[in-house]
Amino acid sequence: MDLYIYYKVKDSDAASLLAAVAPMQANLARHHGVTGQLKRRPDTKEDMQTWMEVYPSVPEGFAAALHDAVAQAGVDQFTTGLRHTEVFMDVVPCA
For the whole model, what pTM was predicted? Predict the structure, then answer.
């Protein structure tokens, strides 16, 4: 199961958000073995950026650990609106 979390951030808060998310993802990798990716859309609309965190092949209970890590890192103070989470799983081809 892979987690995709996307959200908005003001241009003026992007550097602060990066300073919060990068160490959070490093801690998650150390403690849970999941190496997160951080992405953003190349365009900016009305001084807002769209960012995405990607966590591939997460173990059971990782979503709760991520929720706690976000709160501890103070990520929400730099985002605008909700964090939207999408869950995807691998498709196994029929034999």
Answer: 0.91
